[in-house]
Amino acid sequence: MKIWRNIFVMCAAVLSLASCSSDDEEFQTNQLAGTWLRVYDEGVVAEGYVKYTFTPGVPSTSGDCDIYVYDVFAGDTTIHRGYVLNDNRQLVIYEPMYGGTPKLQTWNIKKLGSSTMSWERADRSDIIYNFKRAALQK
Fold it and tell me: pLDDT value at position 24?
């Protein structure tokens, strides 16, 4: 009986360590580059769509962010921003301002993988954005 209990405890320890390592795999800073399509929760009717395109600079954890917004009623809009991706899983998107204080939004990145991404607003945990990688245009 003690042998089975010890085996069970060892298996539980291994499984808990394996689940921790998979969380780390969900945050890969090099995966931010490219175009991401915002996805909405099931049941939410979107009257358009939003795409974020991240173009890294030097260093690769900062660069340009173009936000393309299509609204059925208002049409197309492209907004140019800059971004910085911090080691502590924070994404800061800012409006470049010359000679002034830039306007910025700070997001906590919950997930950043090769095909999906999820952000939570740093100052409001009730605002969460989910994304999927946009298909390449031919």
Answer: 47
